[in-house]
Design a protein that fits this description.
Shape: globular
Structural class: alpha/beta
Largest sheet: 7 strands, mixed
Number of strands: 10
Strand content: 15-25%
């Protein structure tokens, strides 16, 4: 399931990735821009988008409202598995599996019902890099392993006959009674922004809902301005070449402003 509004900078990559992984999409359409709506319509015609549900845009980021809508959907719709997906994410199965679909059904056959994704954040590290409109998956090489907690993205799960709670873990860690977590982590490639200008436009003027503010969600993004947004130091990143480097995990995104930052 994916919420979309102004996501055309990422092109068709997220839907293409879903198609390759054997995943269908339920789209929460947050009053999408015409460009984003055209992308949704294209993939609906290909059978990848299964359903489109509208969620009105209130003039600011409302993660609480979007997540409550998603929680209603996962508790009322039929599906073998659900994944909470964002437009700046691409996902892969663990080594030994051809697709997420294959991996999920293997996990289910072994009695597991929840799957974690290790998060690798790809970033440009110089002002001259610009991957908007390009094959960013193939071209972006610098990444850091983001792990503020053991299971950072515990947000793929089976539909069971018990309530699913998305709100308690802010959509990053789903919770329900009797959870059994698969011991094999999948891979999440997170492309926060595709250029310095894209990052400043995406995060530099973001405001969040009152509900988000009370929950303490997304505040580092709301606190970041066009002037304070910064590209990560290349020394904090690894260069993708072969396997994934999980050494030197970061607990904060270096491009945002945190409350206790100097």
């Amino acid at each position: 399931m994916i919420a979309l509004r102004d996501d055309a900078a990422y092109g068709h990559a997220y839907f293409q990735n879903m198609a390759e992984q054997g995943v269908e999409a339920i789209v929460i359409e947050n009053d999408a821009t015409p460009e984003t709506r055209a992308i949704i319509d294209t993939w609906a015609s290909h059978g990848v988008v299964r359903e489109v549900l509208n969620h009105p845009y209130e003039g600011h980021m409302d993660w609480s409202g979007l997540l409550a809508h998603k929680q209603e959907v996962v508790n009322t719709r039929d599906s073998d598995w659900f994944i909470l997906w964002d437009s700046d994410e691409l996902r892969e199965p663990p080594e030994g599996y051809a697709t997420l679909r294959e991996a999920f059904f293997a996990a289910g056959a072994d009695g597991f019902d929840t799957i974690n994704f290790d998060e690798f954040v790809f970033v440009p590290t110089s002002a001259g890099e610009d991957y908007v409109g390009r094959d960013f998956r193939a071209e972006m090489r610098n990444y850091y392993f983001f792990q503020p907690r053991k299971w950072q993205r515990l947000n793929a799960f089976r539909k069971l006959d018990r309530p699913i709670d998305l709100m308690a873990g802010a959509g990053h860690q789903v919770r329900f009674r009797g959870q059994r977590i698969w011991p094999h982590d999948c891979v999440l490639r997170h492309y926060l922004f595709l250029s310095d200008a894209h990052g400043r436009a995406k995060y530099g003027r973001r405001t969040v809902s009152e509900a988000d503010h009370k929950r303490g969600w997304m505040l580092e993004r709301a606190r970041t301005t066009v002037e304070s947004f910064r590209l990560p130091d290349p020394a904090l990143t690894h260069v993708k070449a072969g396997g994934w480097d999980r050494s030197r995990p970061l607990k904060r995104h270096p491009c945002f402003v945190y409350e206790d930052a100097p």
